[in-house]
């Protein structure tokens, strides 16, 4: 069809030309056909151009979304290798970041308004919207006054309502949340202080700077040993099942088989077309929810980390499998 549609152009043009009462002469026909011959190739390419253009737009949007994300706080962890009993300690306030997600509809309305409104009204609305952008410090803190200690050898379950901050606590341990020190909050005027966008920007720049945590004593997260993290939404790489589990660690056959057994993956590997060499599509597209959860869990088990953080790792599994995994893995 792509290659055929430019051939329809002369038929359409000549028909329209004659339909409007013009007479077709040889000179007009020959000149037109030469012209059609010249544009035929570019027209064949046109659908490919639109396809590439759409792909470019989608990629551009994804890259922009990534580039506009808040930075992670560097040097937030203190690796301790103490003879003491503490394996993990998290103390302080943590925030998901200060950036506001833009509402598309509101943005469009704003654009429309900007075009039509008079200058004075515009100024007034600008002042109002700027005032609205100010935020209370307490509204940007997701986890307040955390004081969480885990002793070596402990198995801890965190229970809480939906949206109560269980995932946020685990993410703060791996450094995805921004730590807000109590003295920094006091310097800004306390938790009830309203900060405008420029002040929030200045605060963000200050606490995201690498030198902010230069002093070892200030670091809010103290960890003794290696950490493995199982996300609530299983994270699967676009690789084979085996590569997903090994996660760049060398293959230890006995440990690998034991991990597969413990995570109840044996049956899945029998069903999958190439066993553990089955290539997993993007975001685990060819795996079920339960399979993704078990592969993600197996990766953490295989790492033999000192501290394993698991966020709802067995919620997607049926009762029988849950029971076996609880017995074998935990
Ligand atoms: N990526 C994020 N960006 C900004 N805010 C977030 C993000 N994820 C969670 N939050 C906010 O953090 C708060 C705690 O959410 P969190 O996901 O930690 O809860 P949860 O206890 O894990 O809930 P659930 O039981 O549903 O898993 C919520 O108010 C939520 O809106
Ligand atoms: Mg959660």
Walkthrough of the structure:
This protein has 330 residues and is an alpha/beta fold. The protein folds into three domains: 63 residues, no CATH class; 146 residues, no CATH class; 102 residues, Rossmann fold (3-Layer(aba) Sandwich), CATH 3.40.50. The chain has 13 helices and nine strands. Strands 1, 2, 4, 5 and 7 form a five-stranded mixed β-sheet that branches. Strands 3-6 form a two-stranded antiparallel ribbon. The protein is flat. The relative contact order is 0.10. Bound molecules: adenosine-5'-triphosphate and magnesium ion. The site of magnesium ion has 4 residues, from helix 6. The site of adenosine-5'-triphosphate (ATP) has 11 residues, from helix 6.
Briefly characterize the structure.
The protein is an alpha/beta fold and 330 residues long.
Q: How are the secondary structure elements laid out?
A:
Layout: H1 8-19, H2 26-67, E1 77-79, E2 86-95, H3 104-116, H4 119-132, E3 135-136, H5 137-140, E4 143-151, H6 166-173, E5 178-180, H7 182-187, E6 194-195, H8 197-208, E7 221-223, E8 227-230, H9 241-246, H10 253-262, H11 266-271, H12 289-303, E9 307-310, H13 319-328
Parallel strand pairs: 1-7, 8-9
Antiparallel strand pairs: 2-4, 2-5, 2-7, 3-6
The chain binds adenosine-5'-triphosphate (ATP) and magnesium ion (MG).
């Amino acid at each position: 069809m792509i290659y055929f549609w430019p051939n329809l152009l002369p038929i359409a043009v000549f028909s329209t030309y004659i339909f409007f009462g013009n007479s077709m002469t040889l000179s007009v026909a020959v000149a037109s056909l030469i012209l059609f011959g010249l544009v035929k190739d570019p027209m064949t390419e046109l659908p490919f151009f639109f396809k590439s253009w759409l792909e470019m737009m989608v990629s551009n949007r994804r890259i922009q979304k990534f580039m506009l994300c808040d930075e992670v706080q560097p040097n937030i962890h203190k690796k301790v290798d103490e003879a003491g009993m503490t394996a993990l300690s998290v103390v302080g306030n943590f925030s998901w970041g200060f950036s506001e997600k833009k509402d598309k509809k509101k943005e469009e309305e704003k654009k429309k308004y900007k075009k039509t409104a008079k200058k004075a009204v515009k100024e007034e609305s600008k002042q109002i919207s700027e005032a609205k952008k100010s935020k209370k410090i307490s509204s940007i803190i997701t986890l307040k006054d955390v004081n969480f200690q885990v002793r070596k050898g402990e198995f801890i379950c965190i229970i809480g309502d939906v949206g109560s901050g269980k995932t946020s606590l685990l993410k703060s341990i791996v450094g995805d949340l921004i730590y807000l020190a109590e003295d920094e909050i006091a310097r800004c005027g306390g938790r009830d202080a309203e900060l405008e966008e420029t002040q929030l920007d200045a605060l963000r720049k200050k606490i995201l700077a690498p030198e902010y945590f230069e002093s070892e004593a200030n670091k809010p997260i103290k960890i003794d040993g290696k950490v493995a993290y199982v996300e609530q939404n299983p994270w699967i790489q676009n690789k084979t099942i085996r590569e997903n589990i090994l996660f760049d660690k060398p293959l230890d056959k006995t440990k690998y088989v034991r991990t597969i057994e413990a995570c109840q993956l044996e049956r899945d590997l029998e069903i999958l077309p190439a066993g553990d060499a089955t290539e997993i599509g993007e975001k685990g597209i060819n795996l079920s929810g339960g399979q993704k959860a078990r592969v993600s869990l197996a990766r953490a088990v295989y790492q033999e980390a000192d501290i394993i953080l698991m966020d709802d790792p067995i919620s997607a599994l049926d009762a029988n499998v849950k029971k076996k995994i609880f017995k074998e893995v935990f």
